[in-house]
Amino acid sequence: MFGLLRKIFGLDKKLYEKQKTLLINGTVEQRQQIAQDTSTHPEALYYLAKDTDENVRRAVAVNKSTPVQASALLANDKSTDVRLALAARLVELLPGLSEEKHSQLYAYAVQALGVLAQDEVLKIRQALATALKDHAKAPPKVVGKLARDVEREVSEPILRFCVALSDEDLLEILADHPESWAISAIAARPKVSARVGDAVVETKDVPAGKVLIRNPGAVFTDVLLFKIIERARDYPDWHEDIAVRHELSLDLARKLAGFVSQKVLDVLEKRDDFDPATRAEIAEIVRRRIDFNRPGSAAETPENKIERYVKAGHLSPGVITDALAWQDHKFVQLALAHLSQIHPIVVEKMLTSGSAKPIVALCWKAKLPMRVAIELQRSYARLAPKDFMYAKGGTDYPMEPAEIKWQLEFYGVDLS
User: What contacts 208, CB < 8 A, 6 or more positions away?
Assistant: First the structure.
């Protein structure tokens, strides 16, 4: 053994001979003194990592001069205290170990931490998770194991705080139907990507969804916010938090305004981070929402509502897009029928054909701007974006008159 150690570590001969005698023939107290001494040669410490006395081995585990190579022995030590001491020492070493510059030492440390991450003793895994949760350079494989631990005390700190845990790990964990507390921990991370946020929403966990919406470090794309607002119809507890998200666009604010309480409408209207034009538009949306669902209108049929708007001269493109956002599809259908002079049954067939062309032709006949046709494709027909027909030049209809005429005649619309 000592010959091998000399080859590995290049031992100083005089000190080697002195310590060799004590290592072999010394008392427990003498071996413990050697194990505690930071000037002890690494070779001797490596040898003492297999000492029969637990206190000696523990002293080796905490000694700053102990070579990382000894970690493999200590990680499998029968003493819980020795393994706990090793975990603390390895975590302390990590910031100074570069995977590139110290690849072999780093590999030894990671291997030992991987063993400790699966230790049968809960307090060892818990201590390791607590120590690694704030380490940006924590080994990904090790924190990945800890994040999947069945014990909440182990996995929650990693899921909640550890930046070394990858999005791929988080997505895999979310796909495995975790407990609600685990989803909430992920939703509360200092930074949550749009991909992970989408996966949180897809779990349909209402408390975790609220945590995500309230998280200033979560990234929200328009697509994700659209999905959240769609789900929020059934989750009133989300409404006010959505209303204060700075990513909320005017179009999404309009959609949200369709079903939230007056309290949330007030929050939307009073947001001071919108520019004056946007605030004015939101105020107008709120006014239209109140008018659309005016007090006493519970018994008002869609036909009566259309008649009221026509008489007041208020059946505008904005009212139709409002109704789309608020999912009042019957009102939309009747409004389009009135404006295009096409029977409501035919209008419904055109809207539900599964194709963008009949919708575009219908809006052209109703003399509506192309933006309404785009919103109908998205919110009423629910076409895939790849199947949308968009405005030409930003505002113009993309179909030639002959093609529009063909579409209308196909549905039996009289153009004479």
Answer: 180, 183, 184, 186, 187, 200
pLDDT tens-digit profile of 220-235?
999 999 999 988 988 9
With a CB cutoff of 8 Å and minimum separation 6, the contacts of 236 are 260, 261
SS (H, E, C) 177-201: CCCHHHHHHHHCCCCECHHHHHHHH
Helix axes of 122-132 and 152-161: crossing angle, nearest 10 degrees:
10
Please report the pLDDT score of residue 12 as a whole number: 57
pTM of the model: 0.71
Closest listed residue to residue 76, CA positions, set 120, 45, 129, 39: 120
The span from the CA of 220 to the CA of 252, in Å, is 12
Vertex 122 angle, CA 119 and 123, to 5°: 105
Query: Do residues 90 and 113 make contact, with C-beta atoms less than 8 angstroms apart?
Result: yes
Q: Is 91 left (phi over 0), alpha (psi -120 to 50) or beta?
A: alpha
Interhelix angle 180-187/194-202, nearest 10 degrees: 150
> CA dist 168 to 52, 141, 165, 173, 294, Å?
43, 12, 8, 9, 48
In three-state form (DSSP H/G/I as H, E/B as E, the rest C), the secondary structure along 60-88 is HHHCCCCCHHHHHHHHCCCCHHHHHHHHH
For the chain, give me the number of helices (H) and strands (E)? 27, 0
Closest CA relative to residue 292, chosen from 308, 277, 279: 308
* Number of Cβ atoms within 10 Å of the Cβ of 310: 13
Report whether 225 contacts 201 (CB < 8 A).
no
